[in-house]
Amino acid sequence: MTVEIDMGATKTGTSARLDLEELLATRLLVQGNSGSGKSHLLRRLLEQSAPWVQQCVIDPEGDFVTLADKFGHVVVEANRSEHELTRIAGRIRQHRVSVVLSLEGLDAEAQMRAAAAFLGGLFDADRDFWYPILVVVDEAQLFAPAAGGEVSDEARKLSLGAMTNLMCRGRKRGLAGVIATQRLAKLAKNVAAEASNFLMGRTFLDIDMARAGDLLGMDRRSTEMFRDLERGHFVALGPALARRPLPITIGPVETAARSTSPKLMPLPETAGEDAADLIFTPSADEDIRPMPRRASQPAPRPTADILAQLSAPQPQAEAEPQGLFPEIDMAERDALISDVLSEILEDPDASYRSVAVLYQDFLVRCRIRRVPGTPPDLADFKRRFAVARAGVDTQTAEGSAWKTALELAQSLAEDVQGVFLVLARAAVEKLPCPSDATLARAYGSHSAGRARRLLTYFEERDLIVLRADFSGQRIVAFPDLGCETAPGDANGPAENPTDRAAAE
Length: 504
Description:
By secondary structure, the chain is α/β, with parallel strands linked by helices. It contains 19 helices and 14 strands. The strands form two sheets. An eleven-stranded mixed sheet has the order 2-1-11-10-9-3-8-7-4-6-5. Helix 6 (153-169) links the parallel strand 7 (133-137) and strand 8. The longest helix is centred in the N-terminal third of the chain and has 17 residues, at 153-169. Keywords: ATP-binding, Nucleotide-binding. GO terms for molecular function: ATP binding. This is ATP-binding protein.
């Protein structure tokens, strides 16, 4: 069944139709300066598609909460813990309820963390709940910035990773990303590049017009039209909209935002003396607080006093006071961190959770165990977690072969390092080659085919050599380590390497 929704009208007066099923498979990018009508466009899209598909709106300003009154969206206030937001997102996919995640009132970093946790919960839902859902992200440049800003690198990486998952890997999970931004130059390119449908509104900067023209396949002279577009007028292109750039005018909407554009109002008619009284006389209910005063500058010291101080003998240096906290024993700290990682890996579902959720769980457990010092950052956690997932014992970890394996793993992307180390551990300890299900679990997936593609990827990079023995069992050899795994059944059940290490 083909479902087309009405977005407005074209120049010729015909209806501008959007193929909703095609949109779910190809994603949408909306761009336009402030006041160009982006929010109006998104509201029209949400209202027209509400009867046909589940919706989730990431709303930084709380403008879309009015959808709840007419279309039954549930408003989720983001002033909750990240763990709670992740769980709520999972239940949203399970029960197929349309929601608006209101981030109003949070600072920029808190908004990024909340959005990352919520999108991570949508992305990590069980396969049984991979129903189609339209995920609309307004002001996407806040959550997928092209460059670092005033927020911490950790928050930026979490938010950018969640947005990348939505646009790059969300389609198979039923997630259809619709992102809107004021400036393409501020939006991460790997997020914008995954959209196949575009609605470009009014913009003035040359760099933004050039990027919009590149996405629409227009020459530089034609991009000058973006300066002349009126409010609510966009140029559409994509398989769900039009095969050639098509100017359209967005139609009216049924609901309104809580915040509206400022309107000119006549000034009150107040006489000069009355206006002065209003300004200089506090009202009865006004909170009168003393204004902080700048401290007066001290009088300059005489030159003779300064010379006398400089010529005086230096006082005896006092012994440094003993610190309030004992020095950190790094060996003890590393042992506590290893215990925390082991606790996380004892959960059979840990391998299938997102890194953001695992890292938050790790930080909470570190506080409970009172791990001294600053906890590891996200990058250090990923490395430690990949090593812990491999289940290497102390004797193997101190060997030169394992250290070489860790160096080789650093050349790979962070999400596949754990799979490589599981294979390396089996080769160093002469264990049977892990099955496809075991490797898929180490990757955080249920797909055995994906595990086989990873083996091919490692072999193409000359890190491993795949072969089979006479009985057809798989053997993985590591030329750089000078060792290979014992024969193993590629179709065997999934095993947890940490369980095997504990048993040994």
